[in-house]
Amino acid sequence: MAAESSEPKSRARQYLEVVTGPLEDKKRWRQYKARIKALPENYRVAVEAMERYLMHFGPGDGADAASMFEDLADLFERGAADGTPIREIFGEDPVEFVEAFIQSYSRGSYIRRERDRLTSAVERAAGEDTTRDRRV
Q: Which structural domain, as residue segments, surrounds residue 30?
């Protein structure tokens, strides 16, 4: 996606973005939804199911989420263009596929952060070394 303009934002836009989040993320979301709408029905149904799952367990912040959904659209657009069957994209276990997909975008995931916090707290309580690198 194109980078945001280097031009300073107006005061009104700054206030608006405090309330609604970055407008660029919203634009990216609308573009993603338009791409998904253009897919053949069976691919669209599969993407929308995955999208629902990702809304709960995917990255929480706008930029990571926008990138993830754009990559999801790329994946299914390529699959549709190549005629790849849905089951071939997902494999035998759709949840396993989605969880593997999420791992590339887990930096913003509140679930990942909370898992890491829990692990770290237990390690500290047990007197163990907590200096290992964590993706938070």
A: 22-125
